[in-house]
Design goal:
Elements lengths: L2 E12 L7 E11 L3 E5 L6 H8 L8 E11 L5 E3 L5 H7 L4 E4 L3 H4 L6 H13 L3 H14 L5 H4 L9 H13 L5 E5 L7 H18 L2 E6 L2 H7 L2 E6 L2 E7 H6 L4 H9 L23 E12 L8 E13 L4 E5 L6 H8 L7 E6 L8 E4 L3 H4 L6 H11 L6 H13 L16 H13 L5 E5 L7 H18 L2 E6 L2 H7 L2 E6 L2 E7 H6 L4 H8 L22 E3 L9 E5 L2 E4 L5
Parallel strand pairs: 3-8, 3-9, 6-7, 7-8, 13-17, 13-18, 15-16, 16-17
Antiparallel strand pairs: 1-2, 1-4, 4-5, 9-10, 11-12, 11-14, 12-20, 18-19, 19-22, 21-22
Helix pairs in contact: 4-5, 4-7, 5-7, 11-17, 14-16, 15-16
Organism: Devosia sediminis
InterPro entries: AAA+_ATPase, ABC_Ni/Peptide_Import, ABC_transporter-like_ATP-bd, ABC_transporter-like_CS, Oligopep_ABC_C, P-loop_NTPase
GO molecular function, one term: ATP binding
């Protein structure tokens, strides 16, 4: 194979004295054309900084390469040492030679331009396409990353798309220039397993067609097993182990690698469902949702909407005290809209939501996916924890401070955390703060919207254990929204599977995962990545998600259900 990239003794530091503040300490690796290198490690290990150094984007984040070399073989056969290149030369390699997919799409997309304009700009800058050519190319690339209603989506702004949809837009933009090396920094973190499998299959296909190499940064070792040729494990800025993927996964040599492998949640098709998976018994459910409908008007014709997005259509479920109901499904299927409707954050078109509270305060609280965006950076922890209580009419007195101290202890944070600010905590610690804040008002129900999806696997495992312990201690009911089936298997008592705004299967977690009845549930489970699947084609189903945009006045046919067992119901599928 042709050597594409050679990194030797790379050192990167930050601050006024970067040599004294190195976060990457002597990393070396090689990458051949068509090869995939996976860089794994926890937050702060230096994996993203190492990757950002390859096209010198680290310079824009306050970083400086303090030593080493990065030799990139260009399309004409010349070798460029990126560490010594000027900005004009670097502009020539970014996008064309080295493409980039970032983890957080909302901060990468321009909020004042439509996604169509941004994708077309990528084609204009990389391939000189304009007008109708750029438009057709944009439609084609959106189809390849499996975005439904591609024509209408081009006119959307980033805030009008779900997190998974936004990430697919970012991937489409990166693919526009057909780069020879693609750096993917946690590119599928926000995606559900079926779309994740689609994207991974697409990247594998492009690699075979074009000889494109990839550097894949992730904490999902199951995903790595399916695509990586080589794996490099990083800890505290050092590459502690690197070898062929099979050797690292089957016979890890370093203690830290073994620690990471032990922390990975393994999906077992229902065999690893919680030991207390029996549904809690109670006379009445604490939450009862009946025929919930949420629609968003689109377009205008003579001051009336042309149609509506049927985001949630006829969803019904109940939730007992002490129970965890997991809602799973693809991004855009309506699971987060359902949760937001429960909290009153979305206007309900029709349907009934009843919450029976046995406690004072506000019975439903929420923990969001991104803890840093959920916490005001100008407030210290004491003010952050006191905020919901003060908003509920309480005073910052000795009793309130006592509750703060109690909750900090329960989520495993020290008492001196009260005087610190959000940026002084790790991602996992910030999510623990969000959990403590959600419990300040002693709620009955906590809605967790992808609350552990952005965390490293070892931190994720600790937060899940914490949630289970808190549920037992306080009798909490959880509405747990996730795209990670292995996580759902570990925490859920019951599962509701959503597809195109509707619940298609609901029941006992073990039954749904072990004996799925609906075709969509089967596709969802078949797409789950696993360490055991090596270099296999990802399970890809090209079935397009039906459009949720309906004409004004449209009402879907009434749902028909069948019983698939005790506490297990499945929606009858419409015949083609």
């Amino acid at each position: 194979m042709t050597r594409l990239l050679s990194v030797r003794d790379l050192r990167v530091g930050f601050g006024q004295d970067p040599k004294a503040n190195e976060v990457v300490k002597g990393v070396s690796f090689d990458l051949d054309a068509g090869q995939t290198l996976a860089i794994v490690g926890e937050s702060g290990s230096g994996k993203s900084v190492s990757a950002l150094s390859i096209n010198r984007l680290v310079d824009f984040g306050g970083g400086r390469i303090t030593g080493g070399s990065i030799e990139l073989t260009r399309a004409d056969g010349s070798v460029l040492d990126v560490t010594k290149a000027d900005e004009r030369t670097l502009l020539g390699i970014r996008g064309h030679d080295v493409g980039m997919i970032f983890q957080e799409p909302m901060t990468s997309l321009n909020p004042v331009h439509t996604v169509g304009a941004q994708i077309e700009e990528a084609f204009r800058l990389s391939k000189g396409l304009t007008g109708e050519q750029a438009h057709r190319a944009s439609l084609d690339v959106l189809g390849r990353v499996r975005i439904p209603d591609a024509q209408s989506r081009l006119g959307y702004y980033p805030h009008q798309l779900s997190g998974g949809m936004r990430q697919r837009i970012m991937i489409a933009m990166a693919l526009a220039a057909s780069p020879r090396l693609l750096i993917a920094d946690e590119p599928t973190t926000a995606l559900d397993v079926t779309v994740q499998a689609q994207i991974m299959a697409l990247l594998a296909e492009l690699r075979e067609e074009t000889g494109m190499a990839m550097i894949f940064i992730t904490h999902d070792i199951g995903l790595v097993a399916g695509i990586a040729d080589r794996i490099m494990v990083m800890q505290n800025g050092v590459a502690v182990e690197q070898d062929e993927a099979d050797r690292v996964l089957d016979a890890p040599q370093h203690d830290y690698t073994r620690h990471l492998l032990r922390a990975v949640p393994h999906f077992t098709s229902g065999a690893a469902v919680r030991g207390d998976s029996a549904r809690p018994t109670a006379s009445e459910p604490i939450v009862k949702v009946d025929d919930l409908v949420v629609r968003f008007p689109v377009g205008r014709a003579w001051f009336k909407p042309k149609g509506a997005i049927h985001a949630v259509d006829g969803v019904s479920f109940d939730l007992m005290a002490g129970e965890t109901l997991a809602i799973v499904g693809e991004s855009g299927c309506g699971k987060s809209t359902t949760a937001r409707a429960l909290l009153g954050l979305n206007t309900v078109t029709r349907g009934d939501i009843q919450v029976t509270s046995g406690r004072s305060g506000r019975p439903v609280q929420m923990v969001f996916q991104d803890p840093f965006a959920s916490l005001n950076p100008r407030l210290n922890v004491e003010a952050l924890l006191a905020e919901p209580a003060i908003a509920n009419g309480q005073r910052l007195d000795a009793d309130l401070r006592k509750r703060m101290a109690f909750l900090l202890d329960r989520v495993g944070l020290p008492q001196d955390a009260l005087s610190r600010y959000p940026h002084q905590f790790s991602g996992g610690q910030r999510q623990r703060l969000c959990i403590a804040r959600a419990l300040m008002l002693n709620p009955d129900v906590v809605v967790l919207d992808e609350a552990v999806s952005a965390l490293d696997v070892s931190v994720q495992a600790r937060v899940l254990d914490l949630l289970i312990d808190l549920q037992h201690e306080f009798g909490l009911a959880y509405l747990f929204i996730s795209h990670d089936m292995a996580v759902v298997e570990r925490i859920a008592h019951r599962i509701a599977v959503m597809f195109a705004g509707q619940v298609v299967e609901i029941g006992n977690a073990r039954a749904v995962l072990h004996e799925p009845q609906h075709s969509y549930t089967k596709r969802l489970i078949a797409a789950v990545p696993a360490v055991e699947r090596r270099r296999q084609r990802f399970a890809v189903d090209m079935t397009q998600v039906p459009s949720l945009v309906r004409p004004a006045g449209y009402e879907p046919p009434a749902a028909q259900w069948r019983e698939a067992g005790e506490d297990h119901r499945v929606r009858l599928e419409e015949q083609a």
